[in-house]
Structure of Major facilitator superfamily (MFS) profile domain-containing protein:
Amino acid sequence: MLEERLHLDASQTQTYTTALLATHGFIGLVSAPIVAHLAEKTPSQKKPLLIALAGCFMGTLMIALAPSVWLLFLGRILQSMAGAATWVVGFALLANNVDKKHVGQSMGTAMSFVTAGIVGGPTVSGALLQLFGYWAAWSLPLVVLVLDIVARLVMIEPGVGYSKTDSLSKCTGTSVPSNDGGPEESTALLSDAPPTASPDDSGLESKHGLKQEYYRAMLSEPRVLTALANVVVVSSLMSGINNTLPVHLRQAFGWKSLLISMMFFCLQVPNIILSGPSGWLRDRIGIRGPTVFGWLAMIPLLLLLGMPGDSHFPWAGGPAAGKSIFISSLIALGSILPLVRGVGAVQLAYVVKDMEAKDPHLFEANRSNLRVFSMTEVGYSVGMMFGPLLTGSLFEGVGFFYMTVALAITCLLQAVISWRWLDTLPTPEIPEASV
C-alpha cells in the first residue's frame, strides 16, 4: 500500500510501518480503560461487542480505500479503538463464564482462535494480493468482520438475568424474591439490619471509592505486575517481529508478499495447535514452570533467527543454508510461543478469583473481569506501541541480528521475573462438602 498505492519511496517503508503499528498500540493504550468504564455501565456485554465490531469494519474499509497517508492513519486509529473494545469485552465475557480450574485451558483455546486470525490475515491476504490483486486481499477481513457481526447478533449471553438480580440485592441490602415467590440464597439472615444510604446521597462516591480501592489492591500485588509485564513483553515481541520481518526478508532473500506471508504461517500455525495443550499444562502443573521454560527456550531461537543474512555469520549466509535456518528457527519459535502467550491473562484471572473470595464486595465478578481485561489490553497496547518503535529503530540503526539480541535479552529478564513472582502450582479444588 505504501509503495504502490500511495507512491511513497521504498526507503520510507519501514519508518511508516513502524509509525502505523506504534499508533495502533498508543490508541489501544488510551482506549482500553475508557472501554472498560463504559462497559461497566452496560448490563449486557453483547451491545458493546456489536459496536466494536462495526467500528472495526468501518476502520478496515477506511484503510482499504485510503487515497492518502493521513486517511490511512485515521483508519488505523479507528481500528485500534474498536479492537481494544473487542478484546476487553470479549475476554471478560469468557472469564465470567469459566470456573477457575478451567481458566488456563479456556484462555489457551481462545488464543488458538486468535492465532488462527493472525495466521489467516498475513498468509491468505498475502497470497491473494500477489495472485489476484489488491481488492481480493481486502475482501478477506471485511467478509470475516461481517460474519462476526452476524455471530454476535445470534449470541446467547449467559448470566445477564442473574447480574440484574444480584446487583439489586447488593444495592438494597434486602432479599430478592425468586420466580416462585421464595427468597434467593442471598437473603439476609438478619432482617433488622440498619438501612443503607440512599444512592442519591452516597452511591456515586462509594462506587468511585471502590474502583480506586480495586486498582490500588491490584497494582500493589506483585503477581499482577508480573502478569502485566508478561503481556507487554509478548506483545512487544510479536509486534516487533511483525514490524520488521517483511522488509528483512525482502532485503535478505528477495522474497515478495506470497513467500513472506508463508513465514507468518510458519510462525503461527504451531501456536494454533499447541495453545490448547499449553493451557491444559498450566492448569495441571501451574504457570511458573512452563512460562520460565518458554522464555529461556526463546533466547537461542531468536538469535538463530537473526543470523541468516548477517555478514558476521558467513556459515548462515548461503541461500540454501540461510533459508533453512531461518524457517526452522521460526517454526520452533512458534512452537514455544504458546508457553508464554496468554500467561498474563490467565494469571490475572487467577488473582481476581482469589481476591473475589476474600472480598466479594470489592471484586464483583462481572465488573472486575471488565477491569482486569482492560488492564490486559493496556499492557498489550503498551507492547504494541514500544515493540515496533524499539525494533524499527534497532533494525534501521544496527541491523536485524542485533535487534534479535535485544529481544533475547528481554526474554531473559522476563524469565527471571516470572520465576520470582508467577504462581508455582495450580490452585487446588475445594471439595463441595467443605464449602
